[in-house]
């Protein structure tokens, strides 16, 4: 996937040949462990705790491609081991990659089809929600 502009401007995020207009949830949170030592009356020691990752939400206009929905169906139908790695490349306005985020062992946890309304002129928006087991900032060389 490729995020085409630096900053909060809109730009496509490419996954499985489809371009997404939105990518949210690139977030990791560490819950510190509080350790109270006997005899230490002034404060407690903070240690690194478990890291959890937010669900990444991708949005795009309705397309004919069904690859992402098929992936969701495969996992929901018992293909639990069918996880994918994802890379989100942030590019500047000249198309040069500024940084790349890596998502480890992605699992589609929600697929939302576009709302259908024959009376409106709005573009139908699809959503794909991904749970993952790691958020990494990749080297410019790709690893």
How would you summarize the topology of this molecule?
Blueprint lengths: L1 E2 L9 E3 L2 E3 L1 E3 L3 E3 L2 E3 L9 E3 L3 E3 L2 E6 L5 H10 L7 E8 L5 E16 L12 E7 L2 E5 L5
Parallel strand pairs: 1-10
Antiparallel strand pairs: 2-3, 4-9, 5-8, 6-7, 9-12, 10-11, 11-12, 11-13
What is the CATH class name? Mainly Beta
Summarize the biggest pleated sheet. Answer: 7 strands, mixed
Instruction: State Rg.
Output: 19 Å
Low-confidence spans: 2-11
Provide mean pLDDT, rounded: 80
Q: From the coordinates shown, what is the CATH architecture?
A: Roll
Query: Structural class from helices and strands?
Result: mainly beta
SSE sequence, one letter per element: EEEEEEEEEHEEEE
CATH topological fold name: Pnp Oxidase, Chain A
According to DSSP, the number of beta strands is: 13
Helix content: under 10%
Q: Tally the helices: what do you get? A: 1
Number of domains: 1
In terms of quaternary structure, what is this? single chain
Net shape: elongated
Span of the ends, CA to CA: 16 Å
The proportion of strand residues reads over 45%
Give a written overview of the molecule.
With 143 residues, the chain is mainly β. The chain has a single domain (2-28, 48-138), classed as Pnp Oxidase, Chain A, CATH 2.30.110. The protein has one helix at residues 67-76, and strands spanning 2-3, 13-15, 18-20, 22-24, 28-30, 33-35, 45-47, 51-53, 56-61, 84-91, 97-112, 125-131, 134-138. Strands 1, 4, 9, 10, 11, 12 and 13 form a seven-stranded mixed beta sheet that branches. Strands 2-3 form a two-stranded antiparallel ribbon. A two-stranded antiparallel ribbon has the order 5-8. A hairpin with a 2-residue loop joins strand 2 and strand 3. It is elongated, with a radius of gyration of 19 Å.
């Amino acid at each position: 996937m490729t995020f085409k502009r630096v900053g909060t401007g809109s730009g496509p995020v490419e996954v499985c040949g489809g371009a997404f207009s939105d990518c949210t949830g690139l977030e990791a949170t560490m819950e510190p462990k509080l350790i109270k030592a006997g005899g230490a009356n002034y404060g407690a020691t903070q240690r690194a705790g478990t890291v959890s990752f937010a669900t990444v939400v991708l949005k795009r206009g309705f397309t004919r491609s069904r690859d992402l929905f098929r992936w969701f169906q495969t996992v929901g139908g018992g293909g639990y081991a069918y996880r994918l790695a994802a890379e989100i490349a942030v590019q500047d306005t000249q198309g040069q990659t500024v940084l790349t985020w890596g998502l480890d062992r992605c699992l589609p946890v929600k697929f939302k089809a576009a709302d259908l309304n024959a009376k409106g002129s709005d573009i139908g928006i699809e959503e794909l929600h991904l749970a993952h087991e790691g958020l990494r900032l990749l080297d410019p060389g790709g690893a």
